[in-house]
Each structure stands twice: as structure tokens, then as C-alpha cells.
Design goal:
3-stranded antiparallel beta sheet, mainly alpha, 27 helices
């Protein structure tokens, strides 16, 4: 990654001594700040910037047939070894590297070969999509019979019999053009196709099966949408006070599990680490993507996403992505400007100066998903350190230079000075100010789009899959940003690709605010930790109920009293039992054992990652024994080793032992997070999988019922986790 942040840190140490920095510090607005840094030509001091810009035209043309052909040959070898999933990925690379300006042969062959691998993976809809792409890319006439035959087979599997019949008839017609086939082979292929047609006749009256390629249903807003906040339920309204600014408040009683917000982001940016696995536009997980016509960096799930991406932003970003990765979250600032569009931004320039109505509302008094709702999110620039504002300004100048270089501005606005640098016209200065404003907003208003990812490091079995939430993208959701923070929130967020879904996790009475948690949760951090984080990043002191009561989480880090087994407080300087009041005499020895147990835990996890189950069990049992000797029964580290022991036993299919240790850790999770918490729901899901695999039908059904009660209220019935539980429940009920 390009070292942009290193340059910022270096220059920030030097500029306070410059004559112009005082003027920058006193700048009246963001446009002034951008103009000052632009005029000082500080970005030009970065050695690699000008060289990078001169390389962009070549960077856009990175596709070549030879590489595409080599990758396709590698994919063929993997296919022959029946490594179909690896073959799909290699064929994908071949497709992405195939130049479109050629005759399309390499791309069409890549799509055709990938369709064969997808067929073997039973990904029938994806296979059909690739067949269509291959035919559109001029797949050779004499080979088309294979695609039509495969198309017919896919459609039979999907019970689309009339379409299957049409595809198979086309296959029969194409066999005559297959000049590479001997007469005997032609007859053999005809016989295969006719047999498939007979299969269509036999099966077309059967009931259609479930379509595993159907998209996950997006939840519907409870009680219908609001007429004033278009992405939210009509059960919430827009409130305002001087202390907390704009916020969402319940205007009717809200029940646990109600869907309060269903919102598409105004703009969002996929993290580079997920470029290979998710659609660049909608963030849907992808197995068989299509690519940009010019670069090999991005992947899309469909032609629709590809076209929307190009029309909105990728035509300007193509070739510059490595540079945008170096600026981190500021990339989203650029994406917001590109999504809004230059013409709209310039035409609506004066609209934001009005103070006659609540910020963010349209002229009709509606808070919708348009740019005004983004513009009026709080930037908090007056509360930021001047050094931070300077770094944000420099980043805005770099992004503005990118917009100039990629011809975002019309030629009439591209007047050059004698030294070849573009002048900062009023329009460019305005856009630069917007870029800076959005960078400042993102510090407090950016949302992480998350998804479920299997924990491959700690579980190698497919029977019990441990999953965790991982950040996939960064987005701006104007409606969700209206929610104020509480360390004890009453909502939970989940995602359907890029769609944000907000649900109530408890009853919210009329008049109460709808509270989100910005990260510091009262079940996970002590009050002082939470307050520090909120002050540093969000510029406020939290006054929620847990903060006022100053709840202490050290209870779950406590050691065990040698006399009564109660919780020993952390050294202050002495360890005192919270139950019997005695002072621990040998606290130093206890802390030494804590360190020793931690080392055992690390060794055990390392061996598990290497699939050394026996070695892992030995280390982890020693760790557990030592932790049980010195730690309070609800210490989170004790629960941690119990959980990993459960994973070890599940990996070796000793489900009885796995359940035993997982049940122990669940007791602490329940104590820490509560009986209705998402954390408990996730642990019960794991326990249900273990009991299901151990054929403990009655116990599994009881655990599934408890897990569904929690997870359905948090995620709804269409979330992958709840769907998995429902499928297990159906299977168990069928057995009974």
C-alpha cells in the first residue's frame, strides 16, 4: 500500500513552524483550508504522487490474452483433478485478465469452462449465467452444443422444464455444426441429449424444489414506513434538543423484534481485503463474478451491479484504487461526491445555506436517502485537533487532485497555469471543501458493514461451524446516523449485503429515544474505558444509565478467593474478596499462575490451528486446570478455554465432550451478557449444532427453541443463522 499516512505524519511535524500554518489554523471554513493547502503545493512534495498519476493510463490496461490463456490452462488442470472450487477461482482470474478489445475468445472460453466447474458444484443458476456470458462473448459455433446441453441439464435441476426443452432442442441443432466431432461421437451426443429430453417429459409434472439460489428476503419495516423519515418505521419520529441534537424517538410503543429501519447506504466502499470474495457494488458474496472491462481489480455479482458501478463512480476510480486504499476511510468521502454527481452538487450549492428548517430535511419536510441528509450530518470540525484537521485537509487535496486528473471536472474548468498545475477554480474549491467535510463526518458517522465468516483457524470441521462477525465495507447511512449512543442500546443492526436492518432488542415505550451503541458497550467495557473512547472519537461524555451507575466489568476478570471461592477484586493495591471481605495473601503467586495459564492457552490454540488435536487438548486441559484453581467461576478467560476445548472435541467428532465444555462456558456468557443477548444466542446456536450431530434430538430441540427466541428477535427469520436453526428444527421434527 502507498505510504500516504507516513507522509502525513512526517509533514504534520514540520508545518506548525511555517508562516502560513497560523492562517490555516484560523481558516473560516473547509474551502479555505483546502485552498490554503492546495496553494502551498504540499502534495507535490510527495515523491511518488506525480509518478503515480503518470502511470494511471497504463494501469487501466492490464489485461492480456497470454495471461488469460495460461490461467485457463491452470484451471483445466484443477478441473481434471476434480478440484472444482479452485478451478472456479482460477477460471475467474482468466476471465478477469481477458481483454475485451480482442475477438472475445479467451473470455468466452473462460466463462464456458467455469460453467462446467459450477455445474459440478451444483451451482446451477451461476452455471446458467456463465453460459449466457460465454454465448454473448462469441463462444465458437462448433462448441456451442456443449453449452446448450449443460444449460438444459441445469434447467432440469431447477425444474424449469419448458426452458430446458428449448435449450436441449438448440443443442440438437448445434451438433450438426460441431465439425470437430466424428460422426460416431455426434451420434453419441445426440443420444445423450435425447435421453435428457425424455427426462424432461418424465419429471415436468413433479412439484418444484426449493431454489437454493433464491436471494435472502429483506425484512419489511414494522407498522409501515414513516411519511417523514422514509427509511424508518412510522413508529419513530425525529426529535431535537440542544444537548443531543437530532435523534430518533418512539412516537408509538415498539415491541421486541420490531424492524425499525431498512436502509440502503447513500454510498459505501468495499474493503480491499474482500475484493476477491464480494461484489464491489452491492457487497454480495460471490463465487463466479464478472469483472471491469478495463482493470482486473474489482469483481461484480451481475451485469447490473457492474453497470451501476461504472456509471456512478468506477469510471473515475478505475486505475486509482491502490492510491485510494492508502487514504483509508477517506475513500468513502470521494465515493459520496461521485455518487451525488458534479452537476447536482453545483446546482444545489446554495440550498445548504438555508437555516429555515431542520437540517437534512427536503423542502417538503422529508428526511430521505438523498444527498442533503448526508451533507447535514455533523462534521464536528470545531472539536477536532488542528493537526487532525490539517491531515484530513491534505487527504482532501489529494482526492481533489485525483478528480482533476481523472477528468471529473469539465474541460472548461481545466485552465492550466504556466507551471502546468491546474488552478483551483471556485467549483473545484467547493468540491474540495465537500471532500473535507465528508472526511470529518466519517469520523463519527461511518458504519461498518459486517458479515458472518467461518472461523477457519479454530475449527476445521464442517459439522460445527464457528462464525464471527467481520467488517466487509464502510458505509454512510443517514437515517441510522440519527440514532444517538447509549452504552446500553435498545436496537441491533444486521446486514443483507449492503442493506442495513435495525431491530428493537427490547420494548421501547412511547417517548423513549431509539439508542444505538457506537462501540463501547456496558457489557464489554468498564465505564472509564467507554467514556475515554467516546470522548476521543465522538466528542461527548455519555450520560446513559450504565455510565451514571458506573458499572464495573472487572467482576469477569476476577480471581478466586482461596477461602470462599468468591471473586477477588483486581489489585488496588490488595486483592479483596467481594463476598467474604478477606485480603488475598499470595496474590503475586496467583498472578504468576495467570500468566502461565495464558501461555498454555496460546500454545493450545496454536496446535489446534495446525490440526494437532491431541497436543491442543493436552495444553488446554492443563490451562483449564490451572485457571480453575486461581480464577473465579465466571472469569471470561475461564469461559474462553472451555469454549476452545469444546471446539477441539467437536473437531474430533467427540460431541458429548464438546457439549459438556460448551455448556460450562455458556453459563458465563449468560451471566456476562444477559439471557436475551445476541452473544448467548450465538453460543446456543453452536450448542444446537453439537447436539444435532450427537443425535440428542430432544435436547437439541430445546436448545434450538431458546436460540430461535433470541436470534429471531435480533436478526429476523430470514437471517442465515436463524435459517440454519429452523432447518435443523425441521429435520429433527421429521425424525421424531
Amino acid at each position: 500500500m502507498l505510504p500516504w499516512q507516513k507522509f502525513l505524519d512526517k509533514i504534520t511535524d514540520n508545518v506548525p513552524t511555517c508562516d502560513w500554518f497560523e492562517a490555516f489554523s484560523c481558516s473560516r471554513d473547509n474551502e479555505d483550508r483546502v485552498a490554503t493547502c492546495w496553494g502551498e503545493k504540499l502534495v507535490e512534495e510527495v515523491p511518488w504522487v506525480n509518478g503515480y498519476f503518470s502511470e494511471v493510463p497504463r494501469r487501466k490496461s492490464t489485461k492480456w490474452s497470454t495471461k488469460s490463456h495460461t490461467l485457463r490452462s491452470d484451471g483445466n488442470k484443477q478441473f481434471q483433478r476434480k478440484n472444482y472450487r479452485q478451478a472456479v477461482e482460477t477460471y475467474t482470474k482468466s476471465i478477469l485478465n481477458a481483454p475485451i478489445e480482442s475477438d472475445g475468445k479467451e473470455q468466452s472460453l473462460g466463462f464456458a469452462n467455469r460453467s462446467a466447474a459450477l455445474f459440478h458444484l451444483q451451482e446451477y443458476q451461476m452455471c446458467l449465467d456463465d453460459i449466457a456470458h460465454a454465448l454473448e462473448a462469441s463462444y465458437p459455433d462448433h462448441l456451442q452444443y456443449k453449452l446448450y446441453q449443460r444449460k438444459g441439464q441445469c434447467l432440469i435441476e431447477l425444474h424449469k422444464f419448458e426452458e430446458a426443452r428449448q435449450a436441449l432442442v438448440a443443442a440438437l441443432e448445434s451438433i450438426g455444426t460441431a465439425t470437430s466431432l466424428t460422426p460416431e461421437r455426434q451420434e453419441s451426443v445426440k443420444k445423450e441429449v435425447l435421453q435428457l429430453l425424455d427426462q424432461v417429459l418424465r419429471e415436468e409434472n413433479d412439484a418444484p424444489p426449493e431454489d437454493k439460489n433464491m436471494p435472502t428476503e429483506v425484512p419489511v419495516i414494522s407498522y409501515g414506513p414513516s411519511s417523514t423519515i422514509t427509511q424508518a418505521t412510522r413508529a419513530v419520529g425525529l426529535g431535537f434538543n440542544e444537548d443531543q441534537g437530532r435523534h430518533l424517538v418512539a412516537v408509538d410503543s415498539i415491541q421486541t423484534g420490531d424492524t425499525l429501519i431498512v436502509e440502503q447506504p447513500f454510498s459505501a466502499v468495499l474493503l480491499p481485503s474482500h475484493y476477491d470474495t464480494h461484489c464491489h457494488h452491492c457487497f454480495k458474496p460471490i463465487l463466479a463474478p464478472i469483472g471491469c472491462d478495463l482493470c482486473t481489480d474489482v469483481r461484480f455479482c451481475s451485469q447490473d451491479c457492474k453497470s451501476k458501478s461504472w456509471e456512478t463512480y468506477h469510471q473515475y476510480e478505475c486505475g486509482y484504487l491502490n492510491l485510494f486504499h492508502s487514504v483509508g476511510i477517506a475513500h468513502l468521502s470521494l465515493r459520496i461526491v461521485l455518487t451525488a454527481g458534479l452537476q447536482y452538487l453545483l446546482e444545489s450549492k446554495d440550498d445548504y445555506k438555508s437555516t429555515e428548517q431542520v437540517p437534512g430535511l427536503t423542502k417538503e419536510g422529508v428526511y430521505d436517502f438523498g444527498y442533503p441528509s448526508v451533507y447535514h450530518l455533523m462534521p464536528h470540525s470545531d472539536k477536532m485537533k488542528v493537526e487532525d484537521v490539517f491531515q484530513y485537509t491534505m487527504t482532501a487535496v489529494l482526492l481533489l487532485k485525483c478528480l482533476v486528473h481523472c477528468q471529473f471536472f469539465p474541460e472548461s474548468d481545466m485552465d492550466a497555469t504556466l507551471d502546468g498545475a491546474f488552478t483551483l477554480s471556485p467549483d473545484k474549491q467547493y468540491i474540495g471543501g465537500l471532500l473535507l467535510r465528508h472526511i470529518q463526518q466519517l469520523v463519527c458517522n461511518a458504519h461498518a458493514i459486517t458479515g458472518l465468516k467461518p472461523d477457519v483457524n479454530l475449527s476445521s470441521t464442517a459439522d460445527v461451524e464457528t462464525v464471527s462477525q467481520v467488517r466487509i465495507a464502510t458505509a454512510i447511512y443517514p437515517t441510522a446516523s440519527l440514532m444517538n449512543h447509549s452504552c446500553k442500546p435498545n436496537i441491533i443492526s444486521s446486514f443483507h449485503n449492503d442493506m442495513l436492518v435495525v431491530r428493537a432488542t427490547r420494548e421501547i415505550p412511547k417517548g423513549e429515544q431509539v439508542y444505538n451503541c457506537y462501540g463501547p458497550h456496558h457489557k464489554k467495557m468498564n465505564t472509564s474505558e467507554r467514556q475515554q473512547i467516546l470522548k476521543d472519537q465522538y466528542f461527548f461524555s455519555c450520560k446513559c444509565e450504565p455510565c451514571q451507575q458506573r458499572e464495573d466489568r472487572s467482576f469477569y476478570q476476577a480471581l478466586k478467593c482461596p477461602d470462599c471461592s468468591g471473586p477477588l477484586s483486581l489489585p488496588k493495591p490488595d486483592m479483596v474478596c467481594e463476598e467474604c471481605g478477606r485480603v488475598a495473601c499470595d496474590s503475586d503467586k496467583m498472578l504468576e499462575k495467570v500468566v502461565l495459564a495464558h501461555n498454555m492457552f496460546v500454545y493450545g490454540v496454536t496446535k489446534l490451528e495446525k490440526n494437532d488435536i491431541g497436543g491442543a487438548l493436552s495444553e488446554l486441559h492443563d490451562c483449564l486446570k490451572l485457571r480453575e484453581a486461581v480464577m473465579y467461576r465466571h472469569n471470561k478467560d475461564l469461559a474462553e478455554v472451555q469454549d476452545v476445548l469444546a471446539r477441539c472435541y467437536a473437531t474430533s467428532e467427540n460431541f458429548l465432550e464438546a457439549a459438556k465444555y460448551l455448556k460450562r462456558s455458556i453459563q458465563t456468557i449468560k451471566k456476562m451478557f444477559g439471557s436475551r443477548s445476541i452473544e448467548l444466542g450465538n453460543e446456543l446456536h453452536k450448542l444446537a449444532q453439537i447436539l444435532f450431530n450427537d443425535h440428542k434430538e430432544d435436547e437439541a430441540l430445546m436448545v434450538i427453541k431458546k436460540a430461535l427466541k433470541i436470534l429471531t428477535s435480533h436478526y429476523g427469520s430470514s437471517h442465515p443463522v436463524t435459517k440454519d436453526l429452523l432447518e435443523m428444527q425441521t429435520c429433527l421434527l421429521d425424525v421424531k
